[in-house]
């Protein structure tokens, strides 16, 4: 973790591992309290603690007398400065302070710090007068020519402070060392006075991300559960739609209740619905006999002509409700006489194979006189009507527009004109819901 501040104060040690704050107990000429807030630069976080500040006695790592850097840094480090031997006997954690002079001298101080097994090392640049925060760790100032490998080779975190701040601490270290035996203040206190340093680390990087991590974990869990539920719901709905499609094709479902009135009739199905000219109901009209009657040959009609006319006359007297059909049948037989007589006079060999056909075809299953769509009366022998499977008739132009643009249901009885099992529309979840509610109501 990055350093946030550095605090150094003089403390009296009365025994190994025991320290007391000396600031309120000593006079102003001896007490020392130094704080750097926001001007501490982190160079290496290797083995930096995760749960709290770094505490220890401040000292200067000692270089070997044969090391050239011993003489190079001699003018920067006082001879009576607090060394490792001055703090090691107190049995407390230690923090080193060293000048960043050159590449080789820096490596020497790093090596000496490793031997002393310190908890942290603080560098300063003695030849700079800038009191602000030193350059960042990736700056060329801290380059030792090993691609920053020195940060991993040393088992302790490394920090940097400004040149004036480092010089102040170095001067204070020369005042609080074992060489102060002749000092007047030494006889005033029972114990050793040393500089105690505390490096505060940034804590917001641990608390805030942990809170956001908890929130993101909850949101992620909700999102995953929602996706799982959505996939399950879609699978269930697909199975229900497939089941409803099979039931519609089998004719087991009330497709009118499912919203069939919104379905339009395709043109190819509309072309299969019969169309004919509206007949004159007040006068005998040409008609087509049933299929089995139309297959009777002209020769058989000639042979049975007399008995059929007799039976027809008797039925006219007894049954009033069938008058139109009897007229139609009588007309068909009468129309057959010239053809039959002509065939008998010419002794034709084709008399057994010529069926009788009317020029116009109509059924009039329901005797309607008015179109229920436009409310206009049908004109006999002029109006073209279309008869739906439910036997209701309408003007062809009226019912065609209605079926192809509005609905597939008969305007009068609301029955579908589509063939059984035909449903030219995709099955939706709303239809599935309606079908489910219909079955539950049953």
From TrEMBL:
A Gene Ontology molecular function term of the record: zinc ion binding
Compositionally biased spans, kind Low complexity: 341-353
Transmembrane spans: 211-236
Region (Disordered): 299-358
Domain called RING-type: residue spans: 371-414
PROSITE patterns listed in its UniProt record: ZF_RING_2 (PS50089)
Keywords from the named record: Membrane, Metal-binding, Transmembrane, Transmembrane helix, Zinc, Zinc-finger
Compositionally biased tracts (Basic and acidic residues): 314-328
Gene3D superfamilies reported for this sequence: Zinc/RING finger domain, C3HC4 (zinc finger)
Highest taxon of source: Eukaryota
The UniProt record lists the keyword Nucleotide-binding: no
Stated name of the protein: RING-type domain-containing protein
């Amino acid at each position: 973790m990055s350093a946030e501040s550095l605090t150094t104060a003089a403390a009296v040690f009365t025994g190994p591992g025991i320290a007391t704050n000396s600031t309120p107990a000593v006079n102003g000429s001896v007490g020392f309290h130094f704080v750097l807030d926001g001007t501490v630069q982190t160079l290496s976080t290797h083995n930096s603690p995760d749960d709290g500040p770094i505490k220890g006695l401040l000292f200067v790592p000692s270089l070997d007398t044969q090391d050239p850097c011993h003489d190079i840094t001699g003018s920067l480090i006082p001879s009576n400065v607090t060394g490792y031997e001055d703090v090691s006997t107190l049995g407390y954690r230690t923090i080193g302070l060293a000048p960043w002079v050159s590449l080789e001298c820096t490596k020497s101080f790093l090596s000496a710090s490793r031997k002393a097994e310190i908890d942290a090392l603080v560098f300063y640049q003695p030849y700079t007068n800038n009191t602000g925060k030193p350059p960042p760790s990736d700056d060329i100032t801290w380059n030792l020519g090993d691609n920053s490998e020195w940060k991993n080779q040393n088992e302790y975190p490394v920090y940097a402070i400004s040149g004036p701040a480092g010089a102040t601490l170095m001067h204070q270290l020369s005042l609080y060392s074992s060489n102060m035996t002749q000092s007047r203040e030494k006889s005033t206190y029972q114990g050793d006075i040393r500089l105690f340093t505390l490096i505060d680390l940034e804590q917001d990087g641990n608390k805030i991300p942990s809170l956001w991590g908890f929130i993101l974990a909850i949101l992620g869990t909700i999102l995953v559960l929602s996706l799982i539920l959505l996939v399950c719901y879609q699978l269930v709905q697909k199975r229900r739609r497939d089941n409803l499609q099979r039931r519609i094709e089998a004719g087991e479902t009330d497709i009118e209740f499912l919203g069939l009135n919104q379905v339009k009739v395709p043109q190819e199905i509309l072309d299969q619905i019969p169309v004919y000219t509206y007949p004159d109901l007040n006068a005998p009209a040409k008609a087509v006999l049933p299929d089995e009657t139309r297959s009777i040959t002209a020769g058989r009609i000639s042979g049975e002509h007399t008995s059929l006319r007799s039976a027809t006359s008797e039925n006219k007297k007894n049954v009033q409700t069938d008058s139109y059909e009897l007229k139609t049948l009588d007309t068909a037989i009468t129309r057959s006489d010239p053809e039959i007589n002509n065939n008998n006079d010419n002794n034709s060999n084709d008399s057994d194979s010529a069926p009788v056909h009317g020029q116009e075809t109509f059924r009039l299953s329901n005797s309607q006189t008015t179109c229920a769509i436009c409310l206009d009366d049908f004109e006999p022998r002029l109006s073209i009507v279309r008869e739906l499977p439910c036997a209701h008739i309408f003007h062809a132009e009226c019912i065609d527009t209605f079926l192809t643009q509005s609905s597939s249901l008969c305007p009068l009885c609301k029955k579908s004109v589509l063939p059984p099992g035909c449903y030219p529309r995709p099955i939706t979840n709303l239809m599935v819901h309606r079908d489910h509610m219909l079955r539950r109501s049953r």
